[in-house]
Specification:
By secondary structure, this protein is α/β, with parallel strands linked by helices. Helix content is 44%, strand content 17%. The strands form 2 sheets. Strands 3-5-4-6-7-8 form a 6-stranded mixed sheet, sandwiched between helices.
Length: 281
């Protein structure tokens, strides 16, 4: 009996010890969890993993950017990479539209004073200004008239050719045409050839050309062109100071200001007049 009682007491003690051990282990685990929570640094919540996109699915734009804006940025990046060679950025050339013939009634006084000045060396004057007067006659009576100016950029029609293409494209052989040009420079060789062809085809057309300067007058082909014009019946004259005053009053937006000839206007006229006379003799 004594042994059984002792055995029972030992069994009870073991059970009590096992319960106490389990409670101690639970307390240790709780303390461990508390320590781990304290050691964690506060911060942003972890970003959930992105779901894999399907094939062909586009990535959404970030920072409020639209779909079009994102595509434009990608295209600009590709273009920049394509233009970058050997570490240097090269600009893509821009195509500009061709210059056109300008036609009007009166020109700017600034253009007139610069383009019509009868200087010997026409540096920077790469245009031709042509002021025209057209008197159309029927049986020796004037029935119509035109007045205006046009300018070119030497990038297509020259002013002389443009006159017959745009100002006077039609021709009636039963009528007479009296045309006067006041030009910033004399015709080039190619334009002289075309004018000669027009004069020979339109036999009732009379043309007089007043020039502020002679264009490349030392070139043999230009001289031959001027001679051919005179031979076809065209009257060639150099502009005198009085002619500059007339064109200023007739073809320039002068705001009723009187034309004041530049200091060497008469001297330059005499210089060019002598050169023209030598060519045409």
């Amino acid at each position: 009996m004594a042994d059984k009682k002792g055995l029972n007491r030992l069994t009870v003690r073991r059970k009590e010890n096992s319960k106490a051990d389990k409670e101690k282990e639970k307390e240790k685990e709780k303390e461990k969890e508390k320590k781990e929570e304290k050691t964690k640094k506060p911060g942003k919540p972890e970003k959930p993993p992105e779901k894999p996109r399907k094939t062909g699915e586009e990535k959404p734009a970030e920072n409020g950017e639209s779909k079009e804006g994102a595509e434009a940025m990608e295209e600009s990046k590709e273009g920049a990479e394509a233009m970058e060679e050997d570490g240097e950025f090269k600009m893509e050339p821009i195509e500009l539209p061709p210059f056109e013939i300008i036609i009007g009634e009166r020109m700017s006084p600034f253009y007139y004073k610069f383009q019509f000045r009868n200087v010997e060396y026409s540096s920077g004057r790469n245009k031709t200004f042509l002021c025209y007067l057209v008197d159309i006659q029927d049986k020796s009576k004037s029935i119509d008239g035109m007045r205006g100016y046009l300018e070119d950029e030497h990038a297509g029609f020259h002013a002389e050719d443009a006159f017959f293409q745009k100002v006077l494209p039609q021709y009636d052989a039963t009528k007479g045409y009296v045309i006067t040009w006041y030009m910033s420079s004399s015709p080039c060789a190619a334009c002289a050839t075309k004018i000669v062809e027009v004069l020979r085809a339109r036999t009732s057309l009379r043309l007089t050309i007043f020039c502020s300067r002679l264009f490349d007058w030392e070139e043999p082909e230009v001289q031959e062109g001027l001679k051919a014009l005179a031979g076809a019946g065209c009257k060639l004259r150099m502009m005198r100071p009085l002619d500059f005053t007339y064109t200023w009053d007739t073809f320039v937006e002068n705001e009723e200001q009187t034309f004041a000839p530049w200091e060497d206007c008469q001297e330059n006229y005499e210089y060019y007049e002598e050169r023209l006379s030598n060519i045409l003799q």
